[in-house]
Amino acid sequence: MTHPSPMGPARSRSGVWEFCGNWYFLGPRAFYARQDLAGETRLELLNCHDTDTGFNLKVPSQRASRLRALCGPLSCLFPLPPAHTTSRTAMTLLSGASGLLQKVSLFTWDACLTLANLVTPNLKVGHVVPQGAPGAGGLWPEYIAPGEGDSRCCCPALNALANHGILPHDGRNIKFTDMTQTVRTSFNFAETFCVFVPSYAADVLHKNYKTDTFDLADLNLHNGIEHDASLTRQDTNYDPDQDKPYLPFINELLASATGKDANGAILTTADTSRYSSKRRAESRATNPEFSLDEFHKIFGSSNSATLLTILGGRVADLEPFLREERIPEGWEPRVRQRMGLTMMAFNRTALGVEMGIKEEPVQAHATVEESGHASAATGLRRR
Ligand code: HEM
Q1: In the prediction, which pLDDT does 97 show?
Q2: Which of 62, 155, 197, 304 to mutate to test the pocket of ligand 1 (most atoms within 8 A of CB)?
Q3: Whether 62 and 138 share a structural domain
Q4: How many domains does the chain have?
Q5: pLDDT the model gives residue 80
Q6: Domain contains 110
Q7: Helices of type H across 174-314
Q8: Which helix (H) or strand (E) holds 90?
Q9: What global pTM score does this model have?
Q10: InterPro entries per the record (predicted)?
Q11: Of 288, 293, 365, 373, which sits 20 to 30 A from 344 (CA to CA)?
């Protein structure tokens, strides 16, 4: 491997590789991302002996997300701020130190919250949503379905918050920090998750987590967080808006629930893995624009994990939540741990879902045009 600098030009097969503004840290090593005109991305190890002192920042394309899979999702939370003339060695030291520090503090904080959950009693049933917050005691603000001009996205939970007016009903000009706050109180995710995911979203949208706002629809950016083979949305190739639930998938998912308890049917980890396997295989076989890298697979399984943890897999609750993006009356998060669902605990469930996904190849016996992409779900057979 050569060790060029991000400041100087380098030739690729289809043109010049350009530094695209993102830095990644893997242990003690610093990498930077370069892209060529064809949008191909590569990661280069920083050579600390290089003496160049400036570079041009380019907006990173979605393909940079592949790099995140390589270096761990946390690394992209802390890209370097734009700088044109800073000494690269100083920059490496600074960015490495601040990036690492933030990563270490987030993980340490999360580990502390996980420990605290072990030694503190759970919140009492009926008291999971804090007093004074919308939804306290199961009393959620009125549900009003989205109307003309309201901004919505591919996330059922954020749409539900907007549908109940907990986030602005028009879904516009939302502060990332407000999203952190409302997700914390409404769903009892731990603070670490509530900072991590919105910060990550801000990063993907090239916005500042602390000061900027976004519209829900901004999150529909394909292969930002949004990805193909979702459980509640058609692929972007078929529905670029991504703002409405796709009922045939949701019905199929909920009908596949095999668990049961006193509250009725329960969607299990194995059920979500099985349905994700099907969605991935079918999308891969029928969608000519299909893409799903390792990073987005993990995001997909994490989304599934929210259904199993925060919603407890209860089909009776999942029906309004996924179909209408409505919080059921009297509902409260099923995670009752005092510090909320930490990333450590959550990742265990997400990993369980991902490990259970066996994407068997499927063969289309009807073209997408013949069958209609939606019914392609049934127009496929296992090889
Ligand atoms: C904290 C801020 C959050 C952000 C920025 C966010 C963002 C997103 C995005 C972009 C997607 C689309 C992924 C795809 O293409 O499938 C998504 C999906 C999803 N999110 Fe969220 N989300 C957040 C919080 C939550 C919470 C708190 C829950 C549950 C309580 C949740 C549940 C889901 C589910 C179930 C999906 C799945 C959809 C599918 O597979 O179709 N999200 N989220």
Answers
A1: 63
A2: 155
A3: no
A4: 2
A5: 32
A6: no
A7: 176-187, 191-204, 247-255, 269-286, 294-308
A8: helix 88-119
A9: 0.76
A10: Chloroperoxidase, Chloroperoxidase-like_sf
A11: 293
Write out the two tokens for 367. 């073209």
* C-alpha separations of 77 from 35, 73, 74 in Å: 19, 7, 5
> Does residue 166 belong to any structural domain of this protein?
yes
Domain boundary among 73, 102, 131: 102
Atom of ligand 1 nearest to the CA of 189: 27
Residue 360 pLDDT: 76
- 159 and 56: one domain? no
| Residues 200-246 pLDDT 10s | 999 999 999 999 999 999 999 999 999 999 999 999 999 998 999 99
Per-residue pLDDT, 369:
40
Dig out the tokens for 382 from the structure: 């296992």
pLDDT at position 143, please?
A: 98
What amino acid occupies position 279? R
Cα 341 from Cα 338, distance rounded (Å): 9
145 and 43 in a common domain = no
Residue 88, pLDDT score: 46
Alpha-carbon distance 129 to 145, whole Å? 23
247 and 330, same domain (yes or no): yes
In this structure, the residue with its CA closest to atom 8 of ligand 1 is 155
Residue 203 CB less than 6 A away from ligand 1: no
Per DSSP bridges, beta strands 362-364 and 264-266 are unpaired
Residues in the chain, pLDDT under 70? 1-99, 362-383
Structural domain including 29 reads 10-102
